[in-house]
Design goal:
Chain lengths: 184, 682
């Protein structure tokens, strides 16, 4: 704005250079100030301190029997905790991982083979797949089935068929004891 | 066509392509650019229109952001506001901008209005322009009032009650209207909800009327300090490059200059100077315009002792109370603003500027003083001399409009008017200084809370967190936390503080966990549907000593131990008061009889306090070996509670220093740019 100022009396040369320098400096200062002012108004939409403080969840998994699953809430999202049967573990491990859309060994997806812990959000467009209840449809691979657009996950939560591009993610978690898990 | 730089711009093929389809660039150029002729002699008093627009934008942006975090429900409005102050990223900054922005909006708008009165800007042909301005003022007042209700403090609630009850003065249907406004039988959740909705809507109505206001302004252009119509001759030659000026006296000198760059740069400089004052309040005195009572959550069962509106409503409030009739008081209050609509016809003088009206000039300043007196009276209790002065000032307010102005036009002998705007542009620095002086004058005048009756002013203490550079004394704050935890916490809650916040006062992650785990909190329901107890976590609020207020009363002889989260902000005198209260216990003086179960405290309003002396020497054992005298503990716990009330204090001052330095440099740069740009006009 300011550098479009027109001054018919100002001559070229030293006087003009000084003037341009002044206008440019002021303009640059204004732009930097406006930019810095925007940051608080952008950052306020990031998670606030109270939301960040709730980013871990502790779960007592003692009541979960073999073959059963529970769903807990972590950061507002469902987390699937399944206590797998030996058959399910073997099914997950007895395949050639190179044939998978998102190749990953089951061993890399669990800390204890028995306990499979996943973020229960379909990697396609964010629906919650079925398969937590024993009566649910579990898809062609015995894991989870997303009814929104037909993605099939296996007993390791890996994508096997359908539009989803990636396996169900494994959240950061830690076994505080044999029966207590801290997610996050 | 116009200046070389702008003709270069309009010659650009992309600009041409857009212009052919949507002539937006020439629209801007005609509205605020090189094609808008502006009198060259406008003083800095003419900056306040653009300043008002800037504040409106600041308020809309900060308000939309606050609405993202605020919850308009009676149980959550206060707490969600505190969450904004404590946990939302930069929430304290945005809220303090919005809260103080309301006050600065009125400062700017009032100066803008008084400028219009002094220079007769409302006179023909600008009556509609003026009237639209009065509409904006009314909308602004309604918006500010509803916004003040939202944080749901004591003043919010009782302000809402008093103002909505004004409508009950309307004969026959008044009570129905009030019930309709409330959506219930008192100010309650439905009222809060609709006020939130309307508070969000009204700024956009204001924007609409501002568009009309600016449109009307552009028809005849700005008035000017001389008050005579500016000649366009040389400007027209200069800009249009033609010898065919638009029907204006061709013999006049160069009276008008293009808005851009002359007034864009002048307004930009004025804006940075304004932001310096605005930022000083936001960062270093953010509660100077506020009432401590509004940091006490709304309580529909107890009215604060002194209800005062925000400072910008005080003159109207004084007029309301001056008249000993409910209906007439309300009528007078509204009339005090509505009379502005007919001001252009009440003023019979044909001379615009007070510069050429020697008698009116006196009456103008008397009127300004009258408004200040009304504001002062509005802040005082309506009794004794205050009431008499308030009545006189009210009478003068109306006499000024209804008697002085109509007759003065006939009797006054104006000074001879100059033939054209030949006078040099006003000395800017002087006008700016005057504006600042008025701004600070209003500031000081708004900041005088009514002191509590029956208690002396608490003696001023030296606090580590005082002043522009003050920070909390970390050791004292930690000791204060110990005092709170071992003594005050037995009865007083600290609900707005979470255990995780203790990291900010120097506790490690593990120490915070241990402190949190030392209490049992109720959680649940579990899988069996039952509530259960678990150790506290850092993400929990400080556990309250009582399950609810009733339990707290029952355990304390009927007196409710107040929540201490905001105590230093919620009492006049702040930390000084708290310190004085904690150390102010003594035996009652002879002749004072205490009620059953009460204690004597010199600094407590009314001197009788239910809380027995809380601090006794060596009540706690400080780990750092500091001797736990009553004085020491009072200082420490006050420091801790000052932090609990204003956890953002250090970050706020640090940011404030940077912002102030930046704004001073920027305004200095713009000052020189302005001087350079204007060098060919002077």
């Amino acid at each position: 704005m300011v550098n479009t100022a027109h001054s018919p009396t100002a001559s070229h040369g030293a006087e003009g250079t000084r003037r341009d320098f002044l206008y440019l400096t002021a303009g640059a200062f204004g732009v930097v100030g406006a930019g810095a002012t925007m940051w608080p108004f952008i950052h306020q939409m990031n998670p606030s301190a109270d939301v960040l403080a709730l980013s871990t969840t502790e779960v007592d998994v003692a009541p979960v029997a073999e073959g059963q699953s529970i769903t807990v809430s972590w950061r507002g999202k469902p987390v699937f905790i399944r206590r797998r049967t030996q058959a399910e573990i073997q099914a997950a491990r007895a395949i050639n991982i190179n044939e998978l859309p998102d190749p990953q060994a089951d061993q890399a997806r669990v800390k204890k083979p028995e306990w499979l812990i996943l973020v229960g959000v379909c990697t396609h467009l964010g629906c919650v797949p079925l398969g937590q209840k024993t009566t649910d449809q579990r898809g062609e691979f015995g894991g989870w089935f997303c009814p929104c657009h037909g993605s099939h996950y296996d007993t390791s939560g890996r994508i096997r068929k359908g539009p989803a591009p990636a396996n169900l993610p494994v959240p950061a978690y830690e076994f505080l004891s044999d029966t207590t898990v801290r997610i996050g | 066509m116009a200046t070389p730089s702008s003709s270069k711009f309009f010659g650009n093929p992309v600009v041409k392509w857009i212009e052919h389809r949507l002539p937006i660039f020439s629209f801007v150029d005609h509205s605020l650019g090189s094609q808008y002729p502006t009198p060259k002699n406008l003083s800095y008093w003419w900056n306040f229109g653009s300043l008002a627009l800037a504040v409106l934008m600041v308020m809309i942006v900060s308000g939309i952001v606050l609405a993202m975090h605020f919850t308009p429900h009676v149980t959550m409005a206060f707490d969600s506001t505190e969450r904004i102050m404590r946990d939302v990223n930069y929430g304290w900054l945005i809220r303090y901008i919005h809260m103080n922005g309301a006050s600065f909006f009125f400062i700017v708008v009032y100066i803008h209005i008084f400028r219009g009165m002094y220079y007769g800007s409302y006179k023909a042909p600008r009556e509609i322009l003026w009237g639209l301005g009065v509409v904006i003022l009314l909308l602004l007042m309604a918006t500010a009032f509803m916004g003040y209700v939202l944080p749901w403090g004591q003043m919010s609630f009782w302000g809402a009650t008093v103002i909505t009850n004004l409508f009950s003065a309307i004969p026959l249907v008044g009570d129905y209207i009030v019930t309709w406004l409330w959506g219930g039988f008192a100010v309650e959740n439905s009222t809060l909800n609709r006020f939130f909705s309307l508070h969000f809507l009204m700024p956009f109505l204001i924007v609409g009327v501002v568009v009309l206001h600016v449109w009307a302004l552009h028809v005849h252009g700005s008035s000017n300090p001389i008050g005579i119509d500016a000649k366009l001759h040389v400007w027209a030659l200069h800009v249009h490059g033609s010898s065919n000026p638009i029907g204006i006296d061709a013999k006049g000198p160069q009276d008008k200059i293009p808005f851009h760059p002359y007034f864009t740069v002048k307004d930009a400089f004025g804006l940075t100077v304004f932001f310096i004052v605005f930022a000083a309040v936001i960062f270093f005195a953010p509660n100077v315009f506020g009432e401590p009572d509004n940091y006490i959550p709304a309580n529909p069962l107890v009215t604060p002792e002194h209800i005062v509106p925000e400072w910008y409503f005080l003159p109207y409030y004084a007029i309301l109370r001056a008249i000993p009739s409910k209906l007439l008081g309300v009528v007078a209050m509204f009339a005090s603003i509505l009379v502005l609509f007919i001001l252009p016809w009440l003023d019979t003088s044909r001379v615009r500027s007070a510069r050429f009206r020697p008698t009116y000039r006196w009456f103008f300043w008397i009127f300004v003083a009258d408004c200040v007196v009304l504001g002062y009276i509005g802040a005082k209790p309506p009794e004794g001399w205050y009431l008499h002065i308030g009545r006189l000032a009210t009478a003068w307010y109306f006499a000024h409009f209804l008697i002085v102005l109509p007759f003065l036009g006939w009797f006054e002998r104006p000074l001879p008017l100059p033939a054209s705007i030949s006078e040099p542009v006003l000395k800017g620095a002087k006008a700016t200084l005057m504006a600042l002086a008025i701004g600070f004058g209003m500031l000081g005048f708004g900041a005088g809370p009514a002191s509590a009756a029956g208690a002396p002013k608490p003696p001023a203490q030296k606090w580590s967190f005082d002043g522009v550079f003050g920070t909390f004394d970390a050791a004292s704050r930690q000791r204060g936390f110990q005092v709170y935890r071992e003594v005050c916490g037995a009865c007083h809650a600290l609900k707005q503080v979470y255990y995780r916040h203790l990291r900010d006062i120097g506790f490690s992650e593990d120490e915070v966990k241990a402190i949190a785990a030392s209490v049992e909190v109720t959680d649940g329901p579990n899988d069996a549907g039952e509530m259960f107890q678990r150790p506290g976590r850092p993400s929990d609020r400080f556990k309250s000593p009582f399950a609810n207020d009733n339990a707290a009363r029952a355990g304390n002889n009927g007196a409710l131990p107040v929540d201490l989260s905001l105590i230093t902000k919620a009492r006049p005198g702040g930390p000084d008061y708290l310190h004085a209260l904690l150390t102010g216990y003594s035996d009652p003086p002879a002749g004072v009889k205490l009620s059953e179960g009460m204690n004597y405290n010199k600094y407590f309003p009314g001197n009788q306090i239910a809380m027995p002396q809380p601090l006794n020497a060596d009540q706690v054992t400080y780990a750092d070996g500091t001797k736990a005298t009553v004085e020491q503990m009072a200082k420490d716990v006050t420091t801790f509670l000052a932090w609990a009330a204003e956890p953002e204090l250090e970050a706020r001052k640090r940011m404030g220093m940077k912002v102030m330095i930046f704004l001073v440099v920027l305004s200095a740069l713009l000052f020189f740019v302005k001087r350079k740009v204007w060098s060919d006009v002077h």
